[in-house]
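Hey, resending since the last one bounced:
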Amino acid sequence: MSLAKSPSKILLVDDDPDILELLEYNLAKENFILAKASDGREALEIAKEFKPNLVILDVMMPVMDGIETARQMKLLPEFKNTIILFLTARGEEYTEIAAFEAGGTDYVVKPIKPRALVSRIKSMLSREGGPEDNQDVIQIGDLVINRTQYLATFQGRNLILPKKEFELLSFLAKHPNKVFNRDELLENVWGSDVYVVERTVDVHIRKLREKIPEYYIKTLKGVGYLFSIDPV
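The C-alpha cells again:
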C-alpha cells in the first residue's frame, strides 16, 4: 500500500492584497497549503515556521524587497532547495538577472494568468523530488556531488549551492566532456514548460565558477559549455 503524498506548502508574498486574494483563490482550489505575507521581513519570519516548498515573491515591496528577501532566505540552510518564483510587474532584464542571482527558480511578469501560473507551479513542484537516475554520487577530482543528499563538496568543503546551481552542476558533471548549448541546458535543467532567458544559464555558470575551479566548466565560444575532467 502506498502513502498519499502530502499537499505542497506555498508562501504567498505581495504587498497588494488583491494579488494575494487572487493567488489564494486559485491555489486553494488545487488543495495547496497556503500562508501569506505582505512584505519581505514578515515573509522570512513566517517561512521559518511554515517551511514552504515554494515561495511566490513580489519584487517591489515595503520594508524589504523581494530580491533581498530571496537572498536572505537562501542563506539559511533549510531553504537551500526551496523553490522561489518571482511574480512581479518589473520586466526589465537587469531585474530578472538580479532575481536569479538571488536564488530565484522562475520569473513571471504580471498581469497574472491564473491557469497558466497554476500549471507552472504544479510542474515545478512535480520535478521537486522527482525520480533520479541511478548515478547518485559523482566524483571528479576533488569535487564530489551527492545527488541524493543534495550536497556538493570541493576538497572536503561543503559548497553552498542554490537548487538550480546544484542541478546545473550535477547535469554537466553527469556528462563530462560533452558540449551543451544554452537551449539544451535550459531544457534539461529548467524544463521546457518554464520560460527563462538564455542569459540565465550564463549567470548560473558564473556563480558556479565562483565556487569551484574554473577549469571544471569550460566555455566553447559560440557553441556552449562542457564539464571537463582534465584540470588544465
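Confidence is low (pLDDT under 50) at residues 129-134.

Sorry for the duplicate.
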